[in-house]
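Archive transcription. Copying these from loose printouts into the bound notebook so they stop getting lost. Printout 1 of 2:
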Amino acid sequence: MKKHIVAIGGGGFGKSNSSYSIEKYILNLSEKKYPKICFLPTATGDSDTYIVRFYSIFTLLNCIPSHIEFFKRTTDIHNHIMNQDIVFVGGGNTKSMLAIWNDWGMSSMLNEAYNEGVIMSGVSAGAICWFTSGITDSWDNQLRILPCLDFIKGTCCPHYDEEPSRIPYVKKIIMEKKITSCISIEGGSAIHFIDGEPFKNVSFKNNKNTYNVFLNNNDIVESPYEKIQL
């Protein structure tokens, strides 16, 4: 049984110009005709607009969509998560999302489901949450390094080419040796992990990349991962 995580740097069904190719890629990983996929919109405070957007797209695809809310009456989380084929975590405030999850015991439930073969995926906050740490804008004054779930070892930065502060911040913290390397995902791309190891960069817009950014002889290196172009 392989364990899959697909971390999306930006874009996807939350954007009106999406082709839904990355969503189809994630659904196809289940190898089921109608996989069950659960949306976690916690990072936006369970935004109704985001939830409606999720259903408006995934009801058109071959799957059985559902979601879990924490700001209204909450379902039996453990049974629901363990009964899924795929979990998709939305973007938003990562720090607040993790705090709410920890209070509900969600982090350990997701880990149990992951180890049982449930595919984990998500965008932005839903990308970095799976790593040891992530680069987040949960605070409005500056980017910071945030401890995350540690399903995958290392640090992750989404929106690498989409927000002007991202590239210089990643280079700065590597030069300062606050981290040794960073998996940096451009918008329109995702990094697919199998059993905790990077498999391929999945580009769902033209020529978008994921890089392993690290220091070599005092020079910053951006090494792109092997790519699948959807």
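Printout 2 of 2:
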Amino acid sequence: MDKEVYFKDNEAKLESLKIKINETKVIKPGEKGNEHGEKPVFAIWFEATNLIDDGITPSDAWFVVFTVIQDNNPNAINELEVGALPDERFLETQLEKIKKDGTVEHAIAYELDDLETPVTLVANQGIGGKELGKQEYQIKQ
């Protein structure tokens, strides 16, 4: 089994799972994908692949790996709040377990605090685990 772990080129690889980020997009309040939100959101579409026997949901896979930060506070780390699901295609599948070697597409959104500061995704080797890397995403409108 490939034991290499990393986060680069929009892909995070752990021993137990892999997440490939396919698209990111800012969605303003009232627009499709953020119909009920009061803040703009940073939406992320990704594929999660389960590499071990234990089933994991695509949402759990994401939360195990990523911390999402908008570094606009000089004194504190500003972790963003999760927003509503930005893509209704995944309403029915968000809690389904991914089979071993299966890959499932999913999406998640985070409420932005401003529309200028880039969003940083920090990948960790599990919750509280070693940092694998980080990538900065510009807020494109």
